[in-house]
Specification:
C2_domain_sf; elongated; SNARE binding; 39 helices; Munc13_dom-2; 11% strand; alpha+beta; Munc13_1; single chain; disordered N terminus; endosome; Immunoglobulin-like
């Protein structure tokens, strides 16, 4: 309720202020306290320059958000950047300890041992030369030549590495069908053939070895070169009824001679209980060399028979499906993982299909110092760390973007060491992750490398394979990397600035890696307690944001200096915050949400918004306290600073639209506008004063020349530009409070209106000053431009309801204060607009009057020419001078005036000409009819001229007002005296019909017509409320009844009733008869007049009132009064009137006709009545 009362008071004040505009239709005397109505001399140059600079500063403030958006877009559209990103500072606790020299020597021995014991076929990426590898290792370990020779000799004297072969029989495909059902029951037998000398190899290169069961005994052989030990023979499971078996079985064979031994594999179709598979199982139960020898001889015999006819004829024998022979010296360093084509035992054998094998050679015993006291995983990790540090140090271009690729010698050493130490792909992946992530904490690498390493771990992950120390080490590496990333997130604004494309790219990759890591199976397994990393990220972001803001405050120090200086520094702080929030929304938030599903923008915005609100609230409390003091005045610079502070806060608050809906409520800046209420009121006054200065300057400098293609001049452009800028200031304020918005909109509307009126008044005075000494044409041109200027500003004001969103204010007030509040808004604002429209029209009329005053002498001369032209001159010649003058003027007006002003000027000229012609006609009553006909022609010519075939004034507008008066005057002056008298009675009849109640009383009569007798009977029944005309307060009334006009009823005489003494309500009840022919009653002006008189004994009778009744009401066929039943009709009540005849134009026209007897007689009788009225 209080709010509604306050709004009512505010509305009343605003309406009172707006009414002052209406009072300016009569300009008050100028006062020094009225800056709008007092238009002093041109402004001093300093004041005008200050106004210009003021609005330029305002424009800069208004464009702040746009500039910020443009800068943000420029950052988002950043191109490739070669400038390295800032250093990623890390706590010293994250930096690992460096390895000692002794440990380096032992590690170097391990590397040399690896090179010396290399096996396998090197790939094209590997280095084949030992010397080249030794040169590289010496550089890596900073090893001198003498130290190298000592270690190399030690390695060469040590025991050579023992190798084993891991074989994985995965599957086969497209095998030959050996069974009747179209399938086979395949199984594999595989073993190692002991190495042979090169000569023996050449002799037997045409033979194919295969495992084959033989029933007969074979001869004893002393040679052991073909003996196949039991540990070297393995067999897979039988896969029934398939041609594409899947085994996925794994075997390990010890290798005696890795350079000459050969892996042999047979695939058989299982047919009966007695088979090679069963024999191999029995063989694995044999103990001792003798038993193994006997079995091998049986196999050898089968080989020598090489598939003789007897073997194919034996019953219950397994069918051969193919074999594979792989020399171990052909196995690549990293092993085989491929499909091998099955081979026949001889050229007569038919086989088909392929078998998928995975082969890998590794050392089962290493004679080095480190291998005896440390694990292979730990040794490989140290070796990789040493090589990575060396390789990274020698990267020349963008070392921060190193993708982890090492040189061929490094890759060769690392590959051989991983193979020799039998490190699984998962172990290698974990080791690489540990090394590179640890190295990254001291020397930056590309985050895509770390992401790639994490993906490798995830792809190879096998929880049972990671236990003990390896699991603990992996957990530690995840923990350290997590803490490292969280530290970088906290300092992200310094480490990953948006100004560096490289830094943002790195940050995106880091977040992607971090997000990938927290979803890894490995991470969830080894770090089960770190399952809420998003909370850690949120904490890091909050802490980093708070620290960044504190650093910003420390940089600008807004608590130092005067109050104005403090506010300016706060503006800088908030602008910095806005820029940071903009970057958060445009860049950082997308990175965080896509990578780790964290709403970075919401976290940082809420943190910064709260801190900014706390600081600004404290500062604005001091400002409001200062402004509330009576002696305090808001200076312009202080006002600009407060406005800029408000705009900066509004920009910051505007970012809430990017928050989730649930987070956008109850923010600290929700009601920040309340801190600025008192300041904004005074700020609007400063804007108003500056606008007035700007308008005055615009008028002073205006040359009254049209700008470009327009018809207004520079001052109109400047005024509307000023209004537009003030309107934009209001739009940017975007005041959210409905009551406050209404007060401010009312204030702004009032300012606009008063400034517009001030401008129009100044333009009028400028024209008034300029008219002296100017010719008619140049003055007309300047006046047209001034009119257009006023109209240009008026049109702008017409858009205020839309520009200031009056409907929005009305809706808001209706919601807060009900329908009454909406009506108050409507009345106040529309009242202001209505008043200013009247004022601007008044000023426009003043300007137009200057034009018409200039034209008046010429127009008067041309009207006089028409009036005095003799009848011998035709109408065209009499009117042509006037029309030529108007045509010349019209050319200028049409060219220089906008459409609205042209219509106004033409309307004023039309009205002026009508008045001038009317004056000429009224001054010449009673002259020849030709005189009036000429002016009638003039009026019609002017009507067509100003109408201009629809391009000018509308005919309905032109034929109103003075036109009707003039047209009636001309028409009546052309009538005869009888016609004027008839017109007089027509007007009285028309007037009688409009009377309802009068103070002169009424008379009751009954009239009826006997058509066959052509007799009109008039019964005067009674009268009531007659006016008192005697001293006793009564009257002695009687009624005179007569047919009028007299020239229509020349034989009819007037009749009268008896006098009724001392009464105001006489009863007459008298009958009167008149002869009326149809030719007479058919005239519209034929009527009965009832004149009520007061009888005086000693003087003339007094006129009490009169009434008329048209005969058409009684005599026309079909009327009830004109039938036989006319006597029974109801009486007619006629109200009396007492008008002065001399006030009628017809009386003046008749009186002017001195030589007309009928006219003079009619005038005489009416004057007698008027005289009796005057004597009363």
């Amino acid at each position: 309720m209080t709010t509604l009362l306050d709004l009512k008071s505010s509305v009343l004040r605003q309406v009172q202020r707006s009414q002052s505009l209406r009072s300016r239709r009569e300009p008050p005397p100028p006062t020094a306290s009225s800056p709008l109505t007092h238009c002093p001399d041109p402004l001093p140059r300093r004041i005008s320059e200050e106004s210009v600079e003021f609005f330029e500063r305002m424009n800069t403030i208004l464009q702040k958000q746009e500039n910020m958006m443009r800068a943000a877009q420029a950052e988002c559209q950043r191109g490739a950047c070669t400038v390295p990103p800032p250093q990623e500072h890390v706590d010293q606790a994250f930096i690992p300890d460096r390895i000692s020299r002794t440990e380096l020597d032992l590690l170097y021995e391990e590397a040399v041992y690896t090179v010396v014991n290399r096996v396998g076929v090197p790939s094209t990426e590997h280095v084949k030369s030992d010397d080249e590898l030794f040169i590289y290792l010496r550089k890596v370990f900073d090893m001198g030549e003498e130290e190298h020779d000592i270690i190399l000799q030690k390695v060469q004297e040590s025991k050579r590495a023992s190798f084993s072969l891991r074989v994985s029989v995965m599957k086969a495909k497209n095998l030959m069908a050996k069974d009747a059902n179209g399938y086979s029951d395949p199984y594999c037998m595989l073993g190692i053939l002991v190495g042979q000398s090169p000569r023996e190899t050449d002799e037997k290169k045409e033979r194919k070895f295969s495992f084959r069961k033989r029933r007969e005994k074979l001869e004893k052989r002393s040679s052991t070169k073909e003996v196949l030990p039991a540990r070297c023979i393995q067999v897979t499971e039988v896969k029934p009824e398939t041609l594409n078996p899947v085994w996925d079985e794994h075997f390990v064979f010890e290798i005696d001679d890795v350079h000459n031994d050969l892996l042999h594999l047979d695939i058989w179709d299982h047919d009966d209980d007695v088979s090679v598979a069963e024999a191999c199982k029995k063989l694995n139960e044999v103990s001792g060399l003798r038993g193994m020898g006997r079995y091998f001889k049986q196999i050898a015999k089968s080989v020598r028979s090489n598939g003789s006819a007897s073997s194919g004829s034996e019953e219950n024998a397994d069918d051969f499906l193919g074999c594979i022979n792989i020399p171990l010296n052909e196995v690549p360093v990293v092993g085989y993982d491929t499909w091998f084509k099955l081979e026949p035992r001889s050229s007569a054998s038919k086989v088909q299909g392929e078998c998928h094998l995975i082969l890998k050679l590794f050392t089962c015993q290493r004679d080095t110092t480190l291998s005896k006291k440390d694990t292979n995983v730990s040794i490989h990790k140290k070796l990789l760390s040493q090589i990575v540090e060396y390789e990274h140090a020698h990267v020349k271009r963008e070392p921060y973007n190193w993708n982890g690729q090492v040189s061929p010698p490094a890759w060769t050493v690392l590959t051989h060491h991983a193979v020799q130490t039998d490190l699984s792909p998962l172990q290698q992946a974990i080791i690489r992750w540990q090394c590179y992530s640890s190295h990254h904490r001291t020397q930056r690498v590309c985050y895509s490398l770390l992401l790639r390493l994490l993906r490798t771990i995830d792809a190879e992950w096998d929880p049972p394979a990671v236990r003990g120390d390896l699991e603990r080490q992996l957990s530690d590496s995840f923990r350290l990397y997590t803490e490292h990333c969280l530290c970088l997130m906290k300092n992200m604004r310094q480490v990953f600035p948006c100004t560096s494309a490289a830094a943002i790219t790195r940050y995106e990759l880091m977040l992607r890696g971090f997000g990938y890591m927290q979803n890894m199976r490995a991470f969830k397994t080894v770090c089960p307690l770190r399952n809420e990393l998003h909370l850690d990220i949120t904490t890091a972001v909050k802490k980093g944001t708070a620290e960044w803001y504190e650093n910003l405050i420390a940089q600008y120090k807004p608590e130092d200096g005067t109050l104005e200086e403090q506010l300016k520094k706060l503006v800088q702080v908030i602008d910095g915050v806005c820029a940071d929030v903009q970057r958060a929304q445009n860049i950082y938030n997308k990175l965080f949400y896509s990578a780790v599903k964290v709403d970075f923008f919401s976290i940082s915005y809420r943190q910064l918004e709260k801190q900014v609100a706390d600081d600004v609230n404290v500062a604005m409390e001091r400002v409001c306290g200062t402004l509330e003091q009576e002696s305090s005045r808001l200076t312009q610079t202080m006002g600009e600073t407060i406005f800029e502070l408000y705009m900066s806060l509004k920009i910051l608050k505007g970012f809430r639209e990017f928050l989730p809906l649930k987070d956008a409520k109850m923010l600290a800046l929700t009601g920040f506008h309340n801190w600025f209420k008192s300041s904004i009121h005074k700020w609007l006054q400063i804007i108003h004063d500056r606008s007035c200065d700007r308008i005055r300057q615009a008028v002073d400098t205006d040359k009254l020349q049209p700008v470009q293609q327009a018809k207004h001049s520079s001052s109109a452009v400047e005024v509307t530009a000023c209004f537009s800028q003030v309107r934009e200031i209001w739009h940017q304020l975007a005041w959210p409070d409905s009551a406050g918005a209404f007060i401010f909109v009312t204030r702004l509307t009032d300012n606009f209106c008063s400034e517009a009126v001030c401008y129009s008044e100044m333009m009028t005075r400028k024209i008034e000053r300029n008219q002296l000494g100017r010719d008619h044409k140049s003055f007309t041109v300047q006046l047209c431009i001034a009119l257009n200027n006023t109209e240009h500003v008026r049109v702008f004001l017409g858009h205020l309801p839309r520009d200031l969103d009056w409907q929005g204010v009305e809706r808001a007030m209706e919601e807060s204060c009900g329908v009454e509040g909406k009506e108050q808004v409507y009345k106040a604002l529309n009242g202001q607009l209505f008043n200013v429209d009247l004022d601007l029209h008044r000023e426009a009329k003043r300007l137009i009057s200057l034009l018409t005053d200039k034209m008046l002498p010429e127009l008067r001369r041309y009207i006089q020419h028409i009036s005095l032209s003799p009848d011998s001159i035709n109408n065209d010649d009499a009117v042509s001078p006037l029309m030529k003058y108007l045509q010349d003027t019209m050319v200028i007006l049409t060219d220089k005036l906008v459409k609205e002003n042209l219509a106004r000027v033409l309307q004023c000229m039309w009205e002026l000409l009508l008045r001038m012609i009317l004056d000429a006609v009224t001054e010449n009553r009673g002259v020849q009819v030709e005189f009036y006909n000429r002016f009638q022609y003039t009026v019609e010519t002017l009507l067509q001229f100003f109408h201009a075939k629809g391009e000018g004034l509308p005919l309905e507008d032109m034929k109103s007002g003075d036109y009707k008066v003039l047209d009636e005057e001309l028409r009546l002056n052309k009538c005869s005296s009888f016609e004027l008298i008839e017109q007089y009675y027509l007007e009285k009849i028309s007037h009688q019909k409009t009377l309802k109640h009068t103070r002169f009383g009424r008379i009751s009569v009954k009239c009826y017509y006997d058509a066959p007798e052509q007799r009109l009977t008039v019964e005067i029944l009674h009268a009531a409320d007659i006016i008192a005309l005697d001293a006793n307060g009564l009257s002695d009334p009687f009624v005179i009844v007569e047919l009028c006009p007299h020239h229509l009823f020349p034989l009819a005489k007037s009749q009268r009733t008896q006098v009724k003494l001392k009464t105001l309500h006489p009863v007459f009840d008298e009958l009167f008869y008149f002869h009326v022919s149809p030719e007479q009653y058919r005239h519209r002006f034929a009527c009965l007049t009832f004149t009520v008189m007061d009888y005086d004994w000693l003087s003339t009778n007094d006129f009490a009132g009169e009434a008329v009744a048209p005969l058409s009401d009684f005599c026309w066929p079909g009327r009830p009064n004109a039938s036989a039943a006319g006597k029974s009709v109801q009486p007619v009540i006629l109200h009396l009137s007492r008008s002065k005849p001399s006030e009628k134009p017809i009386m003046r026209m008749l009186e002017a006709r001195i030589g007309d007897r009928e006219a003079q007689e009619f005038v005489r009788r009416l004057k007698e009545i008027e005289k009796s009225m005057e004597e009363e």
